[in-house]
Amino acid sequence: MSKKNFHPCLSAITLLSLSIFLLFYSIQSGRASAQDKKLTPEEIIKRHLESVGTAEARAKSSTRVVSGETKFVVRIGGAANVNGNAMMVSSGSKLRFGIKLPLTDYPGEDMAFDGAQAATGLLPQGNRSNLSAFLSSQNLPLREGLMGGTLSTAWPLLRLDQTQPKLDYRGLKKIDGRQLHEVGYRPRKGSSDLKVSLFFDPETFRHVRTRYNFEIGATIGTRENSNMNTESYFTLTEDFEDFRAVDGLTLPHTYRMQFNKEGRAGSSLHDWTVTIKKIEHNTKIDDPVFVIK
Description:
This protein is of the alpha+beta class. Helices cover 22% and strands 42% of the residues. It has six helices and twelve strands. It has helices at residues 8-36, 41-52, 55-60, 130-137, 140-143, 160-163, and strands at residues 63-76, 80-91, 94-100, 108-113, 118-120, 166-175, 178-186, 195-200, 207-216, 232-246, 249-263, 266-281. The chain has a twelve-stranded antiparallel beta sheet. A hairpin with a 2-residue loop joins strand 11 (249-263) and strand 12. It is globular.
């Protein structure tokens, strides 16, 4: 029986192919193990703060004034597509955020936290918009400084020594076609029926989305009205994009809010997109600015 002879070049090619395969496998395994590793909330927040700027740069910004243009669109429950203006002012834990629109029945939004109390403005008719009513009953986003994300100095992750929230890491979640780290947020004191999720980019650890969910359960009808009232669902989403450097800090320059309401009174879907034109730091801001009269 004749012994088969292998050409040296063929042997070399085989060994090279095997080496490439093993190298590729080890790289992929390394990536998989890195992704499978469950990060802690502390690691997420540490990298997130580094993505905003150095500790020195963050400490230097005691106040912030953000101004820009707004597009308001009603997608469900009416019809509107108009442009307006927006301004967000913050100092420490204090926040004031206003939107002005050229509409008679809906001239915009006004919301604030003065360091002790959260408040939202009324419409000319004396009632509240859907968003104002939601933030009036569920004021945690204003009270905790979550509203506006890193655009505000009140952002609670910048003030962990004061806010001390309860955080839990929920893994990578696919949101609008991309993987994002999800961190659950609960206030340190008291309970809240409002569910809050913070989302961070896995590459940069920038905060790119906050989602608030609130649900009102169905109620049993009365003798006068035997029908059972249906559930009501409320979702407020904040998205942050177009990050740029300002005074040593990397901050978003596109801010979008979307408010969705579904329930017994019908459905509505509104969104506000703010294109930020200017960000100023350390401007003197008087306390009455944070009070809605």
